[in-house]
């Protein structure tokens, strides 16, 4: 069993990662970090670079976790990637970060978090970064 976290280098992503670390340590299970770019972006600052990847590896190693980092480049929807990895890993929990969006924004742009919440085959824990509301 595993804990899967959708991670972006944002305050919400950091909050999700911190909580996922706690949950994986508590359950003594593997942590899988999913970092995905926007589906059609040629360059996307949400996809971590080599330096950020190395820092993330060090952080997870120092937390004493068994982990895997899954980076998905352009062409993959973030919600689809998190759900795919969670299913493949038989995740017991998915952790995601939330940010405030207007009703119109959710309608026009869709909601990655909403899709994960509604389509996941396991429990989903949503967290927010301090001061983001």
UniProtKB/TrEMBL annotation:
It comes from the Bacteria. Signal peptide: none annotated. It holds the Pfam family Usp. Residues 2-128 form the UspA domain. Coiled coil: none annotated. Gene3D superfamilies: HUPs (3.40.50.620). Belongs to the universal stress protein A family. This is Universal stress protein.
